[in-house]
Design brief:
Layout: E1 2-8, H1 10-13, H2 17-38, H3 40-44, H4 51-66, E2 77-83, E3 87-93, E4 96-102, E5 112-119, H5 123-135, H6 150-153, E6 157-164, E7 177-183, E8 189-197, H7 200-212, E9 219-220
């Protein structure tokens, strides 16, 4: 089978602005929170996979399960649609390992500038497990200590977003501010009431402050603009 890659910015895959915003919103606010909370370790410990390639592959998975791909694969060809303005990297945030994601430029209300999945284990526990997995070889499986994965397998995560304000008017600087929010495991949407510059540094600093608060943040009415939602009868695998 031939595996082909088609690499484009999101706007080229979705020329229609409304459809583009709906897909953008659904990935950040529907698919990825479910995916992360279902198996937090899988969402952060990537076994050596490049973070950007990993998150672009999650987008492909999202399109497949949501029925958004305009054409399917054939028995002879597997087409991989790589969204080039969707990127990710690893950071340690507040002493915890995190996958931080920069979304394509948000256009619709509540679409996200940034996302992060924070695995609630120590930096040292994560580094030990990551190093062991990178050194693993199938020829010597007995050399891998499964106990290193135990803290990660049972650790929960927190999933934060920096969302575009529902108000689409304002000065150029005001439109570059995002609202720090969180999707919890039970599907609640929490708004921290904090506006931050839409930069990776400001987002990371905001997440560190949110982690320091613990989970004592009341759930807000979810930002769920009707024009940006659509029925997706699926749950992430």
């Amino acid at each position: 089978m031939n595996i082909l890659e088609e690499s484009r910015p999101l706007a080229e895959f979705y020329p229609d602005a409304q459809e583009r915003s709906r897909a953008h919103y659904a990935f950040a606010h529907r698919f990825l929170p479910h995916y992360a909370h279902q198996n937090p370790m899988r969402a952060v410990l990537l076994n050596g996979t490049d973070p950007t390639r990993f998150i672009q592959a999650r987008w492909q998975m999202f399109e497949d399960v949501a029925g958004l791909r305009p054409y399917g694969d054939t028995p002879e060809r597997l087409l991989f649609r790589r969204v080039t303005d969707l990127t990710a990297w690893h950071e340690f945030v507040g002493g915890h390992p995190a996958l931080v994601i920069q979304m394509p430029v948000p256009e619709g209300p509540a679409c996200a500038f940034y996302l992060t999945v924070v695995l609630l284990v120590s930096e040292s526990a994560f580094q030990a497990a990551d190093a062991a997995l990178r050194a693993y070889t199938p020829e010597a499986p007995e050399q891998f200590d499964q106990r290193l994965l135990a803290p990660l397998r049972t650790a929960p995560c927190r999933y934060f977003t920096l969302e575009k304000s529902l108000g689409l008017e304002g000065t150029a600087e005001e439109l570059k501010l995002g609202i720090l929010c969180e999707w919890t495991r039970d599907g609640s949407h929490c708004n921290f009431g904090v506006h931050l510059p839409a930069t990776r540094e400001a987002f990371t600093d905001g997440v560190i402050r949110a982690l320091a608060l613990g989970s004592d943040v009341a759930a807000s009415a979810t930002s769920n603009p009707e024009s940006l939602t659509f029925s997706m009868p699926w749950r992430p695998p």
